[in-house]
């Protein structure tokens, strides 16, 4: 990175506004889509090279001259970025003109992607300045002078010149011994965090600065960055009009988002400076704006970051009416029209949700999840129940609507499912109370359109096979709770996942059906995921052990049965679940009944007939073989290679020794009781 920071400082010092504007614009254009890796990325890359050398056995690995030169350039780039951030942080506080302020904020936004230069952006003075520019507060940023401080700029230039001299001197005699010192950090940076000092002092050496990298990677414009409006470099600058003010607020919001995301200290100061109240007021005032401001997306992004990273701010947002405010913004973004109290008008011919609206909606759903996830197991008050039912009715619309891009639709439905799983279960009845339409899915006369969408969504997630725990656990939990609470939902889902068994020639986990995919998850390495998949199938079987084994095989079902103490085939105790299941039976198909006696209960399929290994043996030979097997099992048990297990009265697996001891203890207790009764009868 070759930043002419001296030229920028000289232009600022001399009041050359045009020169500052031109040079910052050039910097922004060159690095608009670049990200500066930190030292961890550099170390990972070197480790990969080392592994490649070892694998191919090309030569012994050693740091090359190019690596050393690269490291020197990294530290130089870090030093330049730190000083540029110092200068710009001070520059934006001096009352500069709008066009200079905007280009400076863009530069700060690019720089704030690097965690190593944030020390001078997280002082109270700078945070308040950014908050004021973003519209979060109207208070002054501090008592810093608005006049140019020539000594300040001279000190920065002097520090850069000194660093260059030190770098050239060390380049001549620097050896491998200095590599160990590269992990040290400059203590002055932490002092700057506390005192608000704005100069990077490099009196010792470049190698004592924070380890950072100038590794640059072009950022691909992802879903979060797609905008229907013009890109940053193409936006018109209106210095006097509303667009110019909105553009300034947007840039300041982007800088705050980067700083809050990358700095725990900034998160703490955001809380202490009570900036959340200003953000809440800003969002509340924008509810009635139509169309919404382009800054609203970044306001929502900042609110999500700060509430997700600071639990006390999440609680504050909930207490200050965050749920109704965000629900109103969600309602406005979807252009909701109400048919009944808890029924939104669903126009299937309506155009898909726009890119910009889908991004705002996604952020709203994420924030609502962070402030409501703890309400799932709570009994809501009457007012809260009304509010959550109102929200659930809107979420039904989120599930049913489509976006312009398929991936946006999937993301929208995913965040909707997450939020639904966080709301009190009794408030989700509005999803099923919608009147039936001619083309509606139904079960026992109840509208299943919403359930069908969730079922289809789960199937897509099962097929994708990516990040299965994060993507599948919420929808599985939601379907489990819904099936327990509503018989109609359970019957509808069971028809799709567990249709009547006809072909039992393959194992339950083999194949591409939804049932086989879920059965495969029952033996997944992740405990939470396998329990969720097993619980869903178990609930669909009305928590009947025999039926559960029938559809999954005893080998796959053993994990859940052992956890619940059902290995002995007992029925679930009524006190262990709130579900109320009907008494309907599970009728077998004709095809299943014909092969039922030949099904292996462990594998859950009809196994090919195997030859009898004892065919042709006499009774004496069979007895000898049995004794030999017993001796082998005893030997393995004594050497703790295997441990014989049994099932106790509660249906749980216990070691056979413990089971025998329990039986002996019970027998002894029974004998004592019998003797006591006999003595009592003799006395009588």
Number of helices: 27
Quick one: overall form?
elongated
Give the end-to-end Cα distance, rounded to a whole number of Å: 104 Å
Low-confidence blocks of residues:
143-148, 173-225, 227-242
Helical content band: 55-70%
Mean pLDDT: 78
The counted number of beta strands is 10
The biggest sheet amounts to:
2 strands, antiparallel
Domain module tally: 4
Neighbour order of strands in the largest sheet? 1-2
Hey, roughly how much beta strand do the residues contain? under 5%
From the alpha-carbon coordinates, what is the Rg to the nearest angstrom? 34 Å
Query: Which structural class should the secondary elements be placed in?
Result: mainly alpha
Give descriptors for this structure:
single chain; mainly alpha; 4 domains; two-stranded antiparallel ribbon; elongated
Question: What does this molecule look like?
Answer:
The structure is a single chain. This protein has helices at 5-14, 17-31, 39-56, 65-91, 98-111, 124-134, 150-173, 187-195, 242-262, 264-272, 275-285, 296-309, 311-319, 322-333, 355-372, 382-400, 406-422, 449-464, 468-485, 487-497, 514-521, 527-540, 545-552, 554-564, 590-595, 619-638, 656-683; strands spanning 34-38, 212-218, 338-340, 343-344, 442-443, 446-447, 599-600, 605-606, 645-647, 653-655. The longest helix is centred in the last third of the chain and has 28 residues, at 656-683. The chain is elongated and about 110 Å long. Helix 4 runs antiparallel to helix 5 (98-111). Strand 5 and strand 6 (446-447) form a beta hairpin. It has 684 residues and is mainly alpha-helical. The protein folds into 4 domains: 5-219 and 242-247, no CATH class; 274-431, no CATH class; 445-609, no CATH class; 619-683, no CATH class. 58% of the residues lie in helices and 5% in strands. The model is unreliable at 143-148, 173-225 and 227-242 (pLDDT under 50). The chain has a two-stranded antiparallel sheet with strand order 1-2.
């Amino acid at each position: 990175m070759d930043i002419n920071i001296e030229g920028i400082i000289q232009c600022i010092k001399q009041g050359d506004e045009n020169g500052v504007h031109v040079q910052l614009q050039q910097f922004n254009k060159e690095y608009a889509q670049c990200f500066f890796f930190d030292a961890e990325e550099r170390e990972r890359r070197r480790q990969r090279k080392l592994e490649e050398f070892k694998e191919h056995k090309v030569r012994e690995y050693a740091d090359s001259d190019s690596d050393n030169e690269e490291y020197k350039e990294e530290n130089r780039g870090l030093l330049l970025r730190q000083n540029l951030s110092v200068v710009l942080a001070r520059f934006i506080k001096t009352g500069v003109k709008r066009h200079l302020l905007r280009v400076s904020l863009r530069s700060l936004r690019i720089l704030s992607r690097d965690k190593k230069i944030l020390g001078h952006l997280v002082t109270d003075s700078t945070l308040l300045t950014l908050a004021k520019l973003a519209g979060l507060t109207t208070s002054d940023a501090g008592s810093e002078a608005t006049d140019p401080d020539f000594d300040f700029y001279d000190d920065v230039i002097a520090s850069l010149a000194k660093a260059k001299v030190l770098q050239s001197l060390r380049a001549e005699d620097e050896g491998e011994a200095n590599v160990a010192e590269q992990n040290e950090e400059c203590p002055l940076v932490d002092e700057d965090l506390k005192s608000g000092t704005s100069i990077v002092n490099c009196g010792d050496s470049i190698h004592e600065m924070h380890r950072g990298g100038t590794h640059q990677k072009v950022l691909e414009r992802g879903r979060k960055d797609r905008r229907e409006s013009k890109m940053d470099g193409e936006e018109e600058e209106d210095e006097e009009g509303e667009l110019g003010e909105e553009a300034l607020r947007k840039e300041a919001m982007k800088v705050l988002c980067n700083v809050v995301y990358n700095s725990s200290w900034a998160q703490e100061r955001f809380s202490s400076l009570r900036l959340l109240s200003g953000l809440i007021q800003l969002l509340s005032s924008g509810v009635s704006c139509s169309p919404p401001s382009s800054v609203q997306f970044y306001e929502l992004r900042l609110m999500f970051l700060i509430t997700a990273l600071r639990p006390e701010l999440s609680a504050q947002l909930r207490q200050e009416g965050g749920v109704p405010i965000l629900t109103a913004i969600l309602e406005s973004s979807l252009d909701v029209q109400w048919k009944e109290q808890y029924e939104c008008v669903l126009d299937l011919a309506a155009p898909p949700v726009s890119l910009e609206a889908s991004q705002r909606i996604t952020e709203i759903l994420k924030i609502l999840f962070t402030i409501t996830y703890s309400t799932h197991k709570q009994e809501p008050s009457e007012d809260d129940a009304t509010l959550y039912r109102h929200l659930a009715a809107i979420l039904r619309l989120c599930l049913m609507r489509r976006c312009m891009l398929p991936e946006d639709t999937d993301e929208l439905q995913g965040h909707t499912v997450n939020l639904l799983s966080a709301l009190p279960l009794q408030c989700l009845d509005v999803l099923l109370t919608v009147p039936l339409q001619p083309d509606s899915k139904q079960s026992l006369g109840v509208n299943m359109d919403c359930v069908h969408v969730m079922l289809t969504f789960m199937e897509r997630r099962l097929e994708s096979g990516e990040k299965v725990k994060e993507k599948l656990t919420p929808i599985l939990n939601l379907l489990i709770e819904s099936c327990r609470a509503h018989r109609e939902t359970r019957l509808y889902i069971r028809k799709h996942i567990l249709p009547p068994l006809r072909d039992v020639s393959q194992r339950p986990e083999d194949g591409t059906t939804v049932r086989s995919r879920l059965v495969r998850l029952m033996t997944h390495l992740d405990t939470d995921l396998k329990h969720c998949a097993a619980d869903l199938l178990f609930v669909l079987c009305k928590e009947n052990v025999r039926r559960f084994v029938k559809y999954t095989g005893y080998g796959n079902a053993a994990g859940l049965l052992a956890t619940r103490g059902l290995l002995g085939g007992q029925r679930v105790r009524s006190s262990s679940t709130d579900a109320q299941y009907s008494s309907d039976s599970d009728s077998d198909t004709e095809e299943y009944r014909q092969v039922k006696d030949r099904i292996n209960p462990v594998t859950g399929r009809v196994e090919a007939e195997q030859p009898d290994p004892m065919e042709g043996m006499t009774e004496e030979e069979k007895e000898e073989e049995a004794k030999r097997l017993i001796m082998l099992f005893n030997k393995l048990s004594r050497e703790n290679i295997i441990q014989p297990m049994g099932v106790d009265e509660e249906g749980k697996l216990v070691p056979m020794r413990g089971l025998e001891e329990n039986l002996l203890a019970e027998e002894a207790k029974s004998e004592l009781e019998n003797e006591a009764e006999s003595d009592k009868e003799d006395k009588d």
